[in-house]
Structure formats: structure tokens, C-alpha cells
Write a structure and sequence with these properties.
The protein is mainly beta. Helices cover 0% and strands 46% of the residues. It has a four-stranded antiparallel sheet, with no helix packed on it. Strands 2-3-4-5 form a four-stranded antiparallel sheet, with no helix packed on it. It has a four-stranded antiparallel sheet with strand order 6-7-8-9, with no helix packed on it. It is globular, with a radius of gyration of 20 Å.
Length: 333
């Protein structure tokens, strides 16, 4: 397969403004809509700070309203844009979701006590979410249809144990294909596995074997093991990003200055393997390693990467991947 067919072009940079409002700590939860608008919850700042950006990384406004009252937040993530441009903010600490206008104006809040791992809008009223909801009716089911009223309409998709004897598969990443189909992968599967769902039915499964992606013997072996960070489908090309441990990395000395939360991603403890799989022919057509960890693949195809400026201040880069086709291919089944 091709090892040098992928390039990454930076299309937007979030944070780094020393003199203004756009200064992120590096401890951030980032979401990006199909329209390209980007939303950041900066929880490392010690406050419920939300940043709203345009598609090219321009900061439009921030919301700093910490508390339990209407229009106030404690742990606002994820932040999800609806097709009508309204925004839904999940806040487990306040056991509710809040609805905002496009300009950030608070509309109303609804009771919702569950922690959401990932959410995608199906329309202006319903979201497909991945969450571990521990009520008797939903326990063990990874996917849920949630109305913006706060009601769980339906839960489905019994967990598939990738490793015999383990309990569940951890966080799910999803990508909506159309009104009824979506892709899903588990961030704790070994080796990684991509599922295509049609409605409530599992329609197809692909698994990927790789020598750098060893099997786990225990569900508790998480640290240092590769894991799928996210997926994105462009036509027949399935992009995956996999976080792997850098074997050459050594921890800092005990007397070294402390680093901010998530700044450990900057010192090459982790690398990222970006792969392109052509599902039309069921072959890996490119597999390439990049320094540093890349967190997310967004619905518009951009990749999230944590970087830093010359002074070590965190910057979130949005990178657009480019693929140069090759006649070489690898094994995908």
C-alpha cells in the first residue's frame, strides 16, 4: 500500500490570541458541523467557556455563563449544530440539554441527565447519540434517538464484544451517511472494526488486521494500546485515524516543570496512523504515520490536531486531508 499518499493542509487555527478572547488552554472538547462552524468547550480554563467559530477559524463570540440557572452551564459538551442552525448543548452536570439560537441566544433547557459521547443531528428535532445510559431499559445499548425535548425515543444496537470475555466496547464514533444509514466504530476494539447500520439493522462489517495493532488480552489494557480515534467516508474512500504509542517516547524527568492538561499530546508520546480504505474494492490504499495525536475526523472531512506555538501555548489546528491515489493496496476484509 502507499505510505506517502496523504498530505494534510491546515485550513483553520483555533486559539493562540494572547490579547483577545481566543485563548484556549488545550483542555478542550471540539465539535464541527457539516457547515464547517466549529464549537469548543474549554473545560481546562476552570469555567464553562464555549467558543463559537466560523468555518475558517474566526472567533465569532464566546459564552461564559457558569452556574445552574437558565442560560448557565457547568460542563457543556458536546455542542451540536442542528440543520436549522440552532445549537443543542448537553450538560450532564446540570442534568439537562439547552437549546440556543445561532447567535448564542438562550432559548430553553430540558431535563436530560445522561453523558453523551457523540451526537449527530438527523433533523431539526432528533439526534442520533452514542452514550452509555445505565437505566434498565437502555443499559448495554450503544445507540439512542434523542428528541431535543430531552426524551429518549428509542435505543438499539446491542453491544458486540470484540474480545471474548470483555464487557462492551467503550466509546463509539459515528458518521451519518443518510436518513437511515450510519457508520460506527468502537474506540476500544482490537483490531479495529467498522460497522454500517441501516436503520436498526447491522448491514455490513469490516475489520482491519495490522501488525502495529495487536490484539488485547484484557479489556483493561488501554494505556499504550492503539485505538481508533474516528472515521470519515468520502464516496467509497473510508478514512480512519488510529492513535498509537510512540515507542521512542520517554517520560519527562521527575523535576521537570509540569505540563498543562492534554499538553502531553504535544511531546510525541503518541503518533497517528491515517489510513484510506477503498470500500469499492475492499482494499487499504494508503497507510501513513504522522507525529502527534489527531483527535477527530469531522463531518466536513477535516481532522483535529493539537499543536502549540513557539511559547508552548496550545493551538487547535483543523487540517484537510488530501489523498493521491496509488495502484498499490493492502489487506482489508
Amino acid at each position: 500500500m502507499c505510505r506517502d499518499c496523504i498530505s494534510l493542509e491546515t485550513v483553520a487555527v483555533l486559539g493562540g490570541d494572547y490579547d483577545g478572547d481566543d485563548l484556549l488552554t488545550g483542555s478542550a472538547y471540539v465539535t464541527r458541523s457539516r457547515s464547517g462552524r466549529t464549537y469548543v468547550h474549554d473545560f481546562g480554563a476552570g469555567a464553562a467557556e464555549m467558543f463559537f467559530y466560523t468555518s475558517d477559524g474566526e472567533l465569532k463570540f464566546t459564552i461564559r455563563q457558569e452556574g445552574e440557572g437558565p442560560g448557565e452551564y457547568v460542563d457543556p459538551m458536546p455542542i451540536v449544530e442542528l440543520p436549522n442552525r440552532r445549537v443543542v448543548v448537553f450538560d450532564q452536570a446540570n442534568v439537562r440539554l439547552s437549546i440556543l439560537e445561532e447567535d448564542g441566544t438562550f432559548v430553553e433547557s430540558r431535563y436530560f441527565p445522561h453523558r453523551i459521547n457523540q451526537a449527530h443531528p438527523l433533523n431539526d428535532s432528533v439526534l442520533l447519540v452514542a452514550a452509555s445510559i445505565q437505566t434498565p431499559e437502555q443499559a448495554g445499548l450503544p445507540f439512542h434517538l434523542v428528541h431535543i425535548s430531552g426524551t429518549i425515543l428509542e435505543s438499539f444496537g446491542p453491544e458486540v464484544n470484540f474480545i471474548p470475555g470483555t464487557e462492551g466496547v467503550g466509546f463509539r464514533r459515528m458518521m451519518i451517511l443518510d436518513d437511515s444509514r450510519f457508520l460506527s466504530t468502537s474506540t476500544s476494539g482490537r483490531p479495529y472494526r467498522i460497522e454500517r447500520w441501516n436503520g436498526r439493522s447491522l448491514e455490513a462489517v469490516w475489520t482491519r488486521e495490522a501488525d502495529w495493532f495487536p490484539q488485547r488480552s484484557s479489556s483493561r489494557e488501554v494505556s499504550g494500546s492503539p485505538y481508533v480515534s474516528d472515521i470519515y467516508l468520502d464516496g467509497s474512500l473510508l478514512w480512519t485515524i488510529v492513535i498509537i504509542k510512540d515507542p521512542s517516547w520517554t517520560p519527562p524527568a521527575p523535576d521537570a516543570p509540569p505540563v498543562p492538561k492534554r499538553a502531553d499530546l504535544l511531546d510525541s508520546e503518541f503518533d497517528t496512523i491515517v489510513e484510506v480504505i477503498d470500500l469499492a474494492v475492499n482494499e487499504v490504499v494508503a497507510s501513513q504515520k504522522f507525529d502527534g495525536a489527531m483527535d477527530r475526523l469531522f463531518p466536513d472531512g477535516t481532522i483535529l490536531h493539537l499543536a502549540a506555538d513557539d511559547l508552548g501555548v496550545p493551538l487547535w489546528e483543523l487540517r484537510s486531508p488530501r489523498f493521491r491515489p496509488s495502484s498499490l493496496s493492502g489487506n482489508w476484509k
